Fold these 2 entries.
Entry 1:
Amino acid sequence: MEHSNHTRVTEFIMQGLFDHPHHQGLFFGLFLCLYIAVVMGNSLIIVAIVIHPPLHTPMYFFIANLALVDILCTSSVVPKILENLMQEKKTISFGGCIIQLFVLTSSLGTELLLLTVMSYDRYVAICHPLHYVKLMNKELCIHLAVSVWAVGTISSFVSILLVLRLDFCRLNLIQHFFCEFPTILALSCSSTYVNEIMIFMADIFLAMGNFLLTIVSYCFIIITILKIQSSKGKQKAFSTCSSHLLVVTLYYSTIIYTYIQPTSSNSLDKNKMVAIMYTLVTPTLNPVIYSLRNKEVKVAMKRILPFMHVKCFRKSL
């Protein structure tokens, strides 16, 4: 009887990103530029790896996967942000929220697994260089990539199914600028105990598990580098993993900051800033990090950009 008095929620109202209505146009332009940078930068990385044979190695195969994940992660959030910045009432349909949840969480989970696989790749390259080609063969790399995408997708799919069994009524204000599990579960008028257990298990196995595996890999890498006699050898060995280490540091620092800080009214605004980091800023920086310090990527980029310029010129004619 009590359940029948509830009106089922068909859309959610988002709190928004900034409380500055007079600056919406400025924020729209900024986020649009960053989104274009994410899509273009990561797309160029993928094309460069595909067309340039010297980049057909396990490391760059996983970097191409990471670039695709970054595009999916940002595309799940930013287009809706841009739409809401131009509207007074910031809403998202129930179905749109579910789709956003699925794409975002599956891409974040996949990225966690990818970073772990990439740290293992760097471990084999530095600690077992003579066996690298044999250990990181093409078949294994494909199996690892498929497994990473499958685990990230299945984990998110199970969590989404558990959300769909919940009832949402009356309360429909999301205190964030996109849909995420904690904010959605807080609006449910039915028990979320099973959902919270699932999220806890995902945090343990996906977040903590991958973080510990990455730490272990880099412990072995550091020990191996310290054993190298020449300073040039140490520098060369460290340069092969420095880009990945920087990406890992950026990604995990934002995730850890989000979960270790106490919940308060002030932390809501901080959470939004951190969310911008891992959904927009980090995907923008990743292609820059992997391209600036790599000569082969720069060569591939020089091959792509003139080709694109000529193609655009012919179309204009």
Entry 2:
Amino acid sequence: MSDSGSRKSLRMPDDDEVFAIVTNMLGANRVSVRCMDGKERTARIPGRMQKRIWIREDDVVLVEPWDWQDEKADIAWRYSKQDADQLRREGHIQSG
């Protein structure tokens, strides 16, 4: 089955954003993420996302690391499972 017809144009990271995988739910609107730049960060779920978008472990998200504290970040976007699978196929995300 050819996949070229089903490719969606996905939101890609801006200059200050990186792909990340949620590794742990910390509570208090915070999650632990493993970023594709090799760093583990504590990411904050912003208020505009808290009620509308549920974030779970193993979700693929886009995070924006803080300038002043590199070990922290804000979640900018969450990808659906299908979108995350497409990002993995295209090589943007390394699993495990």
